[in-house]
Amino acid sequence: MRDDGDGEDPRVTGLRTSVTRLRRDLAAYRVEFTDRGIAEDELAALADMADGGAPEIPRLRRSLLLVASAIGSVSALAPGLAEVRGAVEMFGTPRGT
Asked: What is the mean pLDDT of each run of 10 residues along the chain (97 residues)?
């Protein structure tokens, strides 16, 4: 685990920050879409994993896939989704794959 000087892995900090941004963007996006609830639930799961400090890579990737699928082609949310994707990718790939 890497340390940012505050005792926290900077990847976790990046994940937390990006998830918070996308959750805020999603809350501000007033147009309803079918899978909005799925996106909100999985973003909450990602936030919980970040708060736990050592997220499981397969679970991170699964949540990212579900969020991306749920948001679909909502272009207003694309920058925040890209940021979350980048944060998840910083954790690398699960061992054994």
From this structure: 64 96 97 94 96 89 96 92 96 71
Helices (H), the chain: 10-28, 36-52, 57-71, 78-89
The two structure tokens encoding residue 21? 């941004």
**Which residues make Cβ contacts (< 8 Å) with residue 85, sequence separation at least 6?**
64, 68
Q: Is 52 exposed, middle or buried (0-12, 13-18, 19+ CB in 10 A)?
A: exposed
- CB-based contact 18:86 (threshold 8 Å): yes
Per-residue model confidence (pLDDT) at position 4: 45
